[in-house]
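Let us practice reading a record.
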Amino acid sequence: MDLLAKARAVPVDQTKRLRELADRLPDGDALRGKAVFRGPKAGCSICHSMAYHGGQFGPDLTRIGQVRKKMDLLEAIVFPGASLVRSYETMQVSLSGGDVMVGIIRDQGAGHVSLGISPEKTTRIERGNIRNIEPLNISLMPAGMDQVLTMQQLSDLVAYLEASR
């Protein structure tokens, strides 16, 4: 299989999986979805904030329902690498000593780059120690929430996000 065929194969599989999930989702409840968002099973609020509650590692989702439809939200939950939000792209930083770090650039100046490695950890790297910085086409958000959450929880979470306007 050539490279172009491989590149086309993944979105088709993802589209098929999303359609199968969407067809099986029960009606969602936004109030229960709020509990899923804030709860430990999904862990959304560790990285994302919603109405001033939650983390700052991922994008603020307070008004996500204004810009994303149900299928977009489902895709973002199940396949978070399918579309990346600007300024939250995963970057690979290669250091002059040979080490490689992966994270989200939180801040940068003439002499340094601050790389968010996790919600709890940001590392400051002096520019003189950086050999290369390049974007990766992946998300730090874990994929496969459809395997972690029940169908009802997934539907409730989508309903909560969709109602966030």
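A brief commentary: The mean pLDDT is 93.
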